[in-house]
Amino acid sequence: VAFGCPGVLAVLGLEAAAPGECELTRLLQDKLQYEMRLQYMKHNFPIDYTVQVQYEEVLRPSNITRLRNGTVSEVALRYLWFHLSSQAVLRIREVLPEKHPSWKYTQELGHLFDALGKEYSKYRQTDVEAVVADLVKLVHSAGVESRRKAVRPKALLDNCLKVMRMLYGAPCESGTD
Q1: Which of 112, 124, 127, 161 has the fewest C-beta atoms under 10 angstroms from its C-beta?
Q2: Contacts 24+ apart (CB under 8 A), 125-128
Q3: Per the confidence metrics, is the pTM higher than 0.85?
Q4: Which domains occur in the chain, in start order?
Q5: Quick check: 164 and 85 in contact, CB under 8 A?
């Protein structure tokens, strides 16, 4: 079941994304345009500025390819992307004072992820493959100190956009939305 679209398969055999997911990811894609990421996540920060994140919070296209090859469902991969990307936005927001020029931008991204979270609220970790559920649990576990990694804010959002295009491109363009 793909978020209220049971049995609907998109092109290439990928599970369809719900119409709400597609609309919200389109809005996110607009907010994550290169010029905006450059302005708000690079130019508004000191040179070589990094944010400390858990190693598992860095989701790259290669991670998705590896998980797909391990037969993780598209729905589970989108669930993982949502959790890790919204966490990345939170990590960036944690370092910004309210008067920072990037504050409003990250707040808008946060609102879009909150709306997308409503799409995923009916989905439980027990509904996804164990590897995805374990990653989501690890990232959201308070007090659990895993390996930390210094990452530039722009790189976090670059990865967010690349992975989003991988996961939502075909399912949302297939005309099922």
Answers
A1: 124
A2: 128/73, 128/75, 128/76, 128/79, 128/80
A3: no
A4: 19-172 (1.20.1250.80)
A5: yes
